[in-house]
Amino acid sequence: MKNMTAGSVFVLVLLLLFTNGCNRGKITDARDGQIYQTVKLGDQTWLAQNLNYESDNSWCYDDDPANCETYGRLYNWEAALTACPDGWHLPSDQEWATLIKYLDPEADSNAVGVESEIAGGMMKTRGTFESGTGLWLSPNVGATNSSGFSAVPGGARWPDGTYLVLHMHAIFWTSTEYDAETVWFRILDYGLKSLYRDHSNVTKPMGLSVRCVMD
Fold first, then answer.
1. Tens digit of each residue's pLDDT, the chain (215 residues)
2. pTM for this prediction
3. 3-state SS record for the chain
């Protein structure tokens, strides 16, 4: 950039602000004072970080508070339903579908399995854990975070208290039940740029990540 004029630098700064700043914001959770980044995607505004509000039936991965700071807390489904700050809520399956369709107009909102071939990469943070440049295991396929959603691989907690898949998967609750035991969820994988919609093998007592959407 040493050959750029002052005027061209000013234009570049404006461009960066337009592309990376105008859809961003922040909120403060009045309950505990935590500050969260937000991102506007289409007509929806989402938290751009995993929720980290301490409540009953929520946990830090491996019971380590440092993991809560990095990845947010893991909530069982009942806790997730009421965990979001005032003015925000746990998104429904349809609200997730709206987000994914905004990112990828070719997405299949009714899929059980691959909902979008590309949205996962658009949502995952960049870099790899092994290189010290990110949180996802290598190769973190297709990760650009072009959406600004900033998905991090917070793993999950089984009902028996076992923690698993940190650095590998970001798994998010929806508020929509599939049946008495299971719920629709979304999952992103370190080895894929796709995004999955499913309800199997995840039961309500499990601990998963929460993203809130504005009312």
1. 444 444 443 333 333 333 444 599 999 999 999 999 999 999 999 999 999 999 999 999 999 999 999 999 999 999 999 999 999 999 999 999 999 999 999 999 999 999 999 999 999 999 999 999 999 999 999 999 999 999 999 999 999 999 999 999 999 999 999 999 999 999 999 999 999 999 999 999 999 999 999 99
2. 0.89
3. CCCCCHHHHHHHHHHHHHHHCCCEEEEECCCCCCEEEEEEECCEEEECCCCCCCCCCEECHHHCHHHHHHHCCEECHHHHCCCCCCCEECCCHHHHHHHHHHHCCCCCCCCCEEEECCHHHHHECCCCCCCCCCCCCCCCCCCCCCCCCCECCCCEECCCCCEECCCCEEEEEEEEECCCCEEEEEEEECCCCCEEEECCCCECCCEEECCCEEC
